[in-house]
Amino acid sequence: MPDDAEAPYHLMCSACYTPCPAADGHVVPHWRADSRRILTAYRCGSCWRQTLTELRAVVLREEPELPDSFCDFLARQGFTDTHVIRTAAPEQQRQYMLRILDAIENGQLTFHP
Fold it and tell me: Please, what's the b/e burial string for 3-28 (b: 16 or more CB within 10 A of its CB; e: otherwise)?
């Protein structure tokens, strides 16, 4: 009987450019200051937390494009209720985004490539 298990694969960390096994890879939102957008980033086990720390700083700076871009990232990941963040008051938007970042960091929320 053929093995139906998926073959292991690697991701390339888009911060340190090191390949890492998918089991050690993390899909995270990443703020690109030059394009003023959140992009989907693939990070290794050594780089992903720093990416979240940097994004937290952007959230606290109150970048005007951030809430919509954050929602666009969530929509690309399959979330359909981003209107809750988009229509919230600015302080509530920040709180939602920070809670999402906390959930990513503590493993309650995982994104997949």
Answer: eeeeeeeebebbbeeeebeeeebbbb
Please state whether the predicted TM-score (pTM) of the whole model is above 0.70: yes
Cβ contacts of 38 within 8 Å, gap of 6 or more? 29, 30, 31, 32, 55, 66, 69, 70, 72, 73
Instruction: Measure the CA–CA gap between 23 and 25, rounded to whole angstroms.
Output: 6
Q: Tens place of pLDDT for every residue, the chain, 113 residues? A: 455 566 778 889 999 999 999 888 999 999 999 999 999 999 999 999 999 999 999 999 989 999 999 999 999 999 999 999 999 999 999 999 999 999 999 999 999 87
